[in-house]
Design goal:
The protein has 380 residues and is of the alpha+beta class. The chain has 12 helices and 10 strands. The strands form 2 sheets. A 5-stranded antiparallel beta sheet has the order 2-1-5-4-3, with helices on both faces. Strands 7-6-10-9-8 form a 5-stranded antiparallel beta sheet. A hairpin with a 2-residue loop joins strand 9 and strand 10. Helix 7 runs antiparallel to helix 8. The radius of gyration is 31 Å and the shape is elongated. It starts with a helix and ends with a helix.
Length: 380
């Protein structure tokens, strides 16, 4: 600050940053593109984007921020990646519950530059800004027109004026970053699908093996847990006398839990709903099992929150139920539901196959006895 500025208390506008040679600027962008597109893991892609954006556009700090409207009408903010951002600033950002400048940036699909962050309440908590030392910020949309809103945000610790060429470079970098993120997402989704198919294939090999039904079902459950995101699952079958659901096999669940469930005055309602209605085919998702007045306390005692139930169907009817339990609140999307149904089909095949074998052996034994009786009668 000059002597005249100190006396007047007014800062002179900072001189505009000199524009880099266009070829050099886009050479830096090309170099950044190579680094970013070489990464396959999404987390590493995001980190590289933050680092390379600072290098290309001369910022000291950066983050990738996401905003989405929640059910109560407020806004949820999340930070997907940070580069040299103080933790206190990130915490202040995450506390925000009102629409920010990020929403406006993505609606307009344009790069937005705030030359003095302390003067724009839409984007910043003034106290957090002063503590972090940020001056200029540049918002670069990464998925314009889509929700949740997502942007790359660059922070400069000294005043920085963005020329038209700088903004064009920022826009080009945003397009590159969006392409890299989508590429990593698709690669990740493909690898997940490959893993799921491999798991289903291994489970199918168990189903077609010559082992007993209980051993086969245990092996299928072990495979399914790896891709369903939980190590807690069970299969319930109808009791031979009462028809009520009873535990057949389970994984990751305590003996006490099964005993308390069996001791309920009424049968476990989710399981009973399938066994009492043989035609019911749709899976049931219980977002938070602890809220149920009847069996919620038992689920809470075991640490269960979200439950998914899949009917085991054979020959057009329900022969049991496959349950998955999560210890946290989970959003069970269409992909996981499809996987659960696939594993339920495999368990049902294994059980039905075992029953068919047992029935064939029973008939064979019956015929053998009948044959012996016939021989005895004929010899008299």
């Amino acid at each position: 600050m000059s002597a005249s500025e100190r006396e007047s208390g007014v800062l002179n506008p900072p001189a505009a940053a000199p524009e880099a040679d266009l070829s050099a600027a886009y050479g830096a962008l090309a170099s950044a593109a190579l680094k970013i597109l070489q990464e396959k893991e999404l987390s590493q892609v995001l980190q590289t984007i933050c680092e390379e954006a600072c290098r290309v556009l001369g910022a000291e700090r950066s983050l990738i921020q996401q905003e989405s409207a929640d059910a109560s009408g407020g806004y949820d903010t999340s930070v997907l990646c940070v580069h040299k951002i103080p933790p206190d600033f990130v915490e202040a950002l995450l506390r925000r519950r009102t629409p920010s400048i990020l929403t406006d940036v993505l609606k307009q699909s344009e790069v937005e530059v705030i030359e003095d962050t302390s003067q724009d309440a839409r984007a910043f908590d003034p106290k957090a800004v002063r503590k972090a030392g940020h001056r200029t910020a540049c918002f670069i949309p990464l998925n314009a027109g889509e929700a949740p809103f997502r942007a790359l945000v660059l922070y400069h610790l000294s005043p920085r004026e963005y020329s038209a060429r700088d903004r064009e470079l920022a826009r080009a970098f945003g397009e590159l970053a969006a392409l890299a993120i989508e590429n990593a997402r698709l690669v990740g989704a493909l690898e997940t699908r490959i893993g799921e198919q491999e798991s289903l294939g291994r489970a199918l090999r168990h189903v077609t093996s010559e082992r007993g039904a209980e051993e086969i079902v245990q092996a299928v459950l072990a495979e399914s847990g790896r891709v369903m995101g939980t190590d807690r699952c069970s299969v319930m079958l109808p009791d031979a006398e009462t028809g009520e659901p009873r535990q057949f096999v389970s994984q990751g669940i305590s003996t006490e839990f099964n005993e308390r469930l069996a001791a309920l005055p009424e049968p476990f309602p989710v399981g009973m709903a399938y066994l009492s209605n043989p035609g019911r085919e749709a899976p049931e998702i219980i977002p938070d099992a602890t809220t149920d007045p009847a069996f919620g306390p038992i689920q809470a005692g075991e640490g269960h929150r979200t439950i998914a139930a899949f009917p085991l169907r054979a020959r057009g009817r329900n022969i049991g139920v496959l349950f998955y339990f999560w210890t946290s609140l989970e959003e069970i999307g269409a992909d996981r539901i499809a996987l659960g149904q696939a594993f339920a089909s495999q368990v049902a095949v294994a059980l039905d196959r075992a029953r068919s074998v047992a029935e064939a052996e029973r008939r064979a034994a019956h015929l053998s006895i009948a044959g012996e009786i016939a021989k005895a009668v004929g010899s008299t």
